[in-house]
Design the sequence.
């Protein structure tokens, strides 16, 4: 019998990759991917709890399946990820949605198959959340569908406890994979033809600290790039507090490492940064990106920014706007602070009213968009190299990103997915670039 699965993913890149692992577990059990929830024999929700709206989405979508489950009692529903890992959350889910069959957490994702077996032998739902992180399981079980891009975890967890953030509570302490395991996985992906590898960790700069520091993150990059061939290497996320010269030198040393660094700043006011427990000042942050650009002039920087953190005044917010102007970000992901139960900031006085938060985020987004648009215009007439990653059926165009993460579109008669393609930019629209293929030689061969 051909059984099908459907996975709904919320949250960050790490979760997207974990959904690939869930897919791998289900493939090993004979399932194949379904294109719709309605045809699936099992629906898995891989949840996020970084902000309240991420949780609300998940609750809404799980709740919406109540009727469906009644009319299809043989279909399975499983819920895992960061949301279920919060204290009391699994219980709450079970009470609210008794029709959910399996609830698992972030530390036992690899056991999903076993939990499904357990469920097969009983009526009651199976709930298993581990409070503690377990040993890293090294087997690459991911079923990847993102060719030519692949994600590779280099570490799990976070030790930083930024005062607003739930991640350390739901992902446990930092655990680094061995350099051999990381390099082995990257090599195996490159052997299989993947062209872009993104290394994942909540703060890649503290890679290896929990292993006695034998191989640091920059050293890990050197090891990976010793493979002398063309591919792209990216990483996220780099916490500014530990961003230093060694990393900049590693980026400068290897053509494979993209000249785009994601360096979340969060805020421009030192008082707020202190309250956030970020351990750097706005000036220190700006000095770091200055140092980066002095060494690698074409290096671009993207960031995450939050508005409406407790006690943020208009003056504090102005400092964020000033920093955005000074840092000249390529793009910025902007968020409204969301109160997360269990975090230090949730207890702080001076929570900011929603109207003020909304008004600030609008001003911030406007500034960020204006800067991004300006950068788009500068692309006109330029030739860029993109790694073709997909075909857009609606537009009838191939698409892919340049080294700096910009999406470029082009037409071609033959399939270019997985190839590096040089295109000349004729038009820009918002953040997207439209171009024509320049490498005519290869084109004619095809
Ligand atoms: N480890 C990364 C961040 C991972 S979370 C780092 O330290 O940079 C991704 C982003 O979500 C953060 O950079 C932050 O901007 C945002 N974020 C985290 N907690 C939040 C909260 N409680 N409310 C709103 N945004 C939040
Ligand atoms: Fe959250 Fe801070 Fe850890 Fe990033 S470094 S995951 S923001 S606690
Ligand atoms: Fe990621 Fe959300 Fe968890 S951002 S680590 S999936 S809380």
Sequence:
């Amino acid at each position: 019998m051909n059984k099908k699965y459907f996975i709904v993913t919320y949250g960050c890149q790490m979760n997207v990759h974990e959904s690939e692992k869930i897919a791998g577990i289900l493939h090993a059990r004979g399932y194949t991917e379904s294109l719709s929830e309605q045809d699936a024999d099992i629906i898995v929700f891989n949840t996020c709890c970084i902000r309240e709206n991420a949780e609300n989405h998940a609750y809404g979508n799980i709740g919406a399946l109540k009727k469906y489950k009644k009319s299809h009692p043989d279909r399975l529903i499983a819920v895992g990820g960061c949301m279920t890992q919060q204290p009391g959350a699994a219980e709450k889910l079970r009470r609210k949605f008794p029709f959910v069959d399996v609830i698992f957490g972030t530390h036992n994702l690899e056991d999903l198959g076993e939990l499904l077996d357990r469920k097969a032998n009983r009526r009651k739902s199976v709930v298993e959340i581990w409070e503690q992180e377990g040993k890293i399981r090294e087997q690459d079980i991911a079923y990847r569908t993102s060719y030519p891009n692949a994600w590779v975890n280099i570490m799990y967890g976070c030790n930083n406890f930024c005062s607003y953030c739930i991640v350390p509570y739901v992902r446990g302490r930092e655990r680094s994979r061995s350099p051999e395991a990381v390099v082995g996985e990257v090599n195996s992906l490159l052997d299989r033809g993947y062209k872009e590898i993104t290394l994942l960790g909540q703060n890649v700069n503290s890679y290896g600290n929990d292993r006695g520091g034998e191989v640091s993150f920059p050293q890990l990059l050197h090891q990976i790039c010793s493979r002398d061939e063309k591919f792209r290497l990216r990483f996220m996320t780099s916490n500014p507090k530990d961003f230093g010269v060694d990393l900049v030198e590693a980026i400068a040393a290897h053509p494979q490492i993209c000249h785009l660094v994601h360096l979340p700043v969060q805020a421009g006011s030192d008082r707020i940064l202190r309250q956030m427990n970020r351990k750097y000042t706005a000036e220190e942050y700006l000095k770091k990106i200055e140092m980066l650009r002095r060494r690698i002039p074409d290096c671009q920087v993207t960031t995450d920014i939050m508005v409406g953190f407790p006690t943020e005044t208009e003056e504090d917010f102005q400092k964020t706007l000033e920093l955005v102007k000074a840092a000249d970000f390529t793009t910025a992901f902007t968020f409204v602070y969301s109160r997360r139960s269990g975090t230090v900031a949730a207890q702080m006085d001076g929570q900011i009213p929603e109207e003020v938060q909304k008004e600030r985020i609008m001003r911030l987004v406007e500034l960020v968009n204006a800067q991004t648009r300006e950068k788009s215009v500068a692309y006109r007439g330029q030739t860029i190299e993109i790694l073709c990653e997909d075909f857009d059926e609606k537009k009838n165009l191939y698409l892919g990103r340049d080294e700096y993460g910009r999406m470029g579109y082009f037409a071609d008669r033959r399939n270019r997915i997985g190839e590096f393609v040089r295109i000349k930019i004729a038009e820009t629209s918002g953040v997207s670039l439209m171009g024509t293929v320049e490498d005519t030689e290869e084109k004619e061969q095809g």
User: Anything to note?
Assistant: The chain has 14 helices and 19 strands. The longest strand covers residues 383-392. Residues 308 and 353 are 8 Å apart (CA to CA). The domain at 383-445 is CATH 2.40.50.140 (OB fold (Dihydrolipoamide Acetyltransferase, E2P)).
